[in-house]
Write the structure tokens for this entry.
Amino acid sequence: MVTKNSADVVIVGTGVVGVVIAEQLLDAGHSVLMIEAGPRVSRAEVVENWRNAPLGVKGDTSVAYPPRPWAPHPTGAEKPENAYLQFTGPDAYDQTFIRYAGGSTWHWAGTSWRLTPEDMRLNSLYGVGRDWAFDYDTLEPYYVRTEHKLGICGPSDRAQQWPQTGARSADYPMPALPFSPGEVRFTDVVKTLGYNNIPVSQARNSGMPYDGRPACCANNNCVPVCPVAAKYDAETALHRLEKKGVTLLVDSVVYQVETNAQNKIEAVSYYDQHKQSHRITGKLFVLACNGLENPKLLLMSKDDRNPNGVANSSDQVGRNMMDHPARSFTVTTKDPYWSGVGPVVNSGIMQTSQGSFRSEHAGAYFRYNNFARNRFVTFAALKKGLVGKALDEEIRRMTACTADIVAAHEILADPNNRLTLSDKKDWLGLPKPSIHYDVGDYVRKSWEAYSQPIGKQIAEAMGAVDIKISPKFNNSKHIMGGTIMGKDASNSVVDVDCRSHDHENLFIPGGGAMAAGACGNSTITMVALALKAGDAIVDQMRGA
Amino acid sequence: MTRQSNDPNGKLMMSRRGMLLSGATLLAGSMAASLCPGMALAAVDAGAQSRFMQLSNLLIDHRLNPDVGARIAETATGQYTNFAGMLDAIIAIAEKKQAKTVEEFFGDIPEGELKDFAHWVIFAWYSGCSSEKRDAKVFTYEEALTFKTTSDVVTIPSYGISGPNLWTRPNVPLSAPMPRF
């Protein structure tokens, strides 16, 4: 039975990981209570927030999702000293997750690349990084379930699928989305260099409704919000979960995970937006706040039995923070490409992420960004002082003849890339996360010797008359690590089912558990891990 | 069931129907504000508004929405102490040249305050904002003229122009005619 203060299973976080697990448990007959730090809002509100934001800040997703005082998340508006995320290392770990009901899939692109078998055996094959605790074949059925659960479209032609190695036991539920004029031209150009620009498998309804959501109609606004919910986001699933009986508690900031004498999790405590504390008990607990909020919460929850923090006997909580360090090439071409037709990310070159060179340096995934270019070029065109027809023609030329090519790199799990608790406090008086982050020599070497030359080669083949390269590594906003998975409890936080090594009734699924993240976006793997954890939880609850 | 944490009785925060209705109301309100500039504006006298549209039509040879113009004018009155005087001065320059297009008189606007103001008016219409900055006033999104220059090909983000899987099209050459707007 579920009450306001207790349930069979308590899930902290309402993003995609929490949502898919909640649904498994509800379907298995368990009561589920979900706790969300931030608010629940309507899609119309998010869309209007974004439309009404100034053109110059539309690239900042937080304009669509202003944080509540009690549930801060990163925004582009703050000075570094006041920001929610504090940085101490040579590189910024500048993420854009949001604390809203539905979580950060509100503003993901929907890109869903599977890992390859090789990605999961990095140490065995190349002598670097960590191996996953299980192989690709173990994960594959969960990838299939993820593709069907979220509604991930993709090509039926095996030559156009990813990965090329490893099995695929079921087709995508929907066909690949068509390419824009720019993507067609880009695909033809890179083909002359030997690169195969393949359709992105993406959580977007292709040519048909799916899961009660409409078909994509090319609003070109997947980031920061699909206005019609053709792209999967977890908010779309919350309504279904409510019909199945979930209790969803919003504007409630969990600040402590409480252990009992058996070192099992007994309860979680949260503050409401009036700073009043409440306590929730349960039989089993799931932390589904991804790789930043989960370790922060575990570290905040230290007690006499767990002096380094809950689930942290290995001292690995908060360590191994990863992302996909990215550099962009803004290319000006003589002939038009015309980005901004169709979804914002619709294709990619993945073959460059694989190879024996991984013993020396990272691979990289190259993508052609398909965002409409107007907001990127308008101010520059206006600054030229043109008027009349000359101004119109310049905006049109710059919109058509500029493109962003992004190289996203694989980073190794490094325990020195670490989240700790800052001395600085948020509105509730809770510590802000502090992250030491260095992309590392493995990535830097790739950029110098591998990815930058390839990027320049592609740009030149595109007919570039000008190339501007981002001066530093940017974050891809793919939070991985922090609660890393392993078989050895002395150097990992969770087991193969994302169960805490230290607490048998605590699960910490999602990107935090990933031992290696390769180059492709992490959400599909996070969800696959969530489904695997969900199966384990159902089994464990049955035996409870 | 969704509850806010300060909701001691477990009362529904907002039903799905309520959320949909609130969304519809929000959208309707937005549309109404867009269609009825008086709802969103402080008083800018009709004469100044009319002169501002006259100036705008001299600087920009396209069909301009007077509701958007009224919003720009309102901000301009606060931003430029000599707003009315600059309107008159630039219009006088254009009339003296009997200009039909901006190209025929723009070079005659003296550098400095007047030229800067003329550029700002163009900036406002094309970008839909008062500046590049985070705190810019927003006059319009979807009617910003930047989007009109590419409306035959490029989506205004969040306003799809095709349909399910119907966006395949030839790569339009730069020599193709500029959309009329």
Notes: Chain B touches chain A through 70 residues (CB under 8 Å). The CA atoms of residues 153 and 169 of chain B lie 9 Å apart. Confidence is low (pLDDT under 50) at residues 7-41 of chain B.
